[in-house]
Amino acid sequence: MAKAVTSAMIGILVRDGRLDIDEPAAVPEWHDDPGDPRAAITVRHMLHMATGIPWDDGFMNRGSEMYEMVRSEDTAGYAAALHPTAGPGERFDYSSGTTTLLARLIGDAVGGDHDDVRAFLHDELFDKIGMAPVNITFDAAGTWQGSYSADTTAQNFAKLGLLFLWGGEWDGEQIIPQEWVELARTPSPAEPEYGAHWWLDRLRPGVFYAVGIRGNVITVDPAHDLVIVQLSTVGGPLPLAHTEAILDAFAALDE
Questions:
Q1: What's the confidence (pLDDT) of residue 124?
Q2: Which residues are paired to 173 by β-bridges?
Q3: Which residue has the higher pLDDT, 19 or 238?
Q4: Displacement of CA 18 from its chain's centroid (Å)
Q5: Which residues are registered as beta bridge partners of 24?
Q6: pLDDT digits (tens, 9 = 90+) for 8-26
Q7: Residue of 160, 166, 161 lying closest to 125 (CA atoms)
Q8: Residue 134: is it exposed, middle or buried by C-beta count within 10 angstroms (0-12/13-18/19+)?
Q9: CA 115 → CA 16, 57, 110, 112, 136, distances in Å?
Q10: Distance between CA atoms of 92 and 107, rounded to whole angstroms?
């Protein structure tokens, strides 16, 4: 579910004019060689998980990219060294490596060290909506692990869901642009069930999810003014099945 936090922070950088998601992503490793096809990858492609770089996100799968990345001292460096097998925007590859690169972009934009990143997260998001405490971790190279590290309570995850439910507004302040929330919940060209770092529900139009490891889920249902948070350790389809049952119960009231 940390990926939803990463999406929010990218949206805040866009709000402040500090990032253009349609410009080539400022990943230095992709621009050393003028002929490198990765130089055409934009932040929008990254948000849509459509860089064209293949990725196995199974952290328990020995030898997978995720397995190797989390054991690396420089997680963003590991992800940046991988090469595409498709063009930008052509294929969906769910990739925590892509999100890790976005987290490094956030760090670069706000100063780069741990304190700068923590201050940005707290000052621009966590403190404004009352998310506390939130535990975030960094690798040895100083990159926030934005693909999986934003550990907090169910109540605090619900606040993040409410922020997106309310179009990015909190207590009269536009924390995230309304346009960013719409981007997050709009089907991407490469995968209709994925927006900008949020999953979408084709069976329940308008519903979107932040789905974490082992079945942790933030569900946002604007049609019913509803946010559901489940924290789980069981994994598999069971937690989402519970969420879907709640959604269907509310939808039945409309019939």
A1: 98
A2: 170
A3: 19
A4: 18
A5: 42
A6: 999 999 999 999 999 999 9
A7: 160
A8: buried
A9: 20, 29, 10, 8, 11
A10: 25
In 3D, which of 123, 118, 124 has the Cα closest to residue 176? 124
Residues β-bridged to residue 28 = none
Q: What is the pTM of this model?
A: 0.96
Which residues on adjacent β-strands are paired with residue 219?
Answer: 209, 228
Per DSSP, 213 falls in state G
Alpha helices in the chain (DSSP H): 2-15, 43-47, 65-70, 75-80, 96-110, 114-121, 127-129, 154-165, 178-184, 238-252
Q: Is the previous residue joined to 133 through a cis bond, with omega within 30 degrees of 0?
A: yes
pLDDT at 84 exceeding the cut of 90: yes
Tens-digit pLDDT profile for residues 103-147: 999 999 999 789 999 999 999 999 999 999 999 999 999 999 999
| Strands 208-211 and 226-230, bridge-based pairing | unpaired
At 158 the pLDDT is: 98
**Which token pair is 122?**
């707290």
Tokens coding 204: 């329940």
Residue given tokens 């099945």 in the structure block: 241
User: What confidence tens digit (pLDDT) does each residue in 152-162 have?
Assistant: 999 999 999 99
Amino acid at 38: R
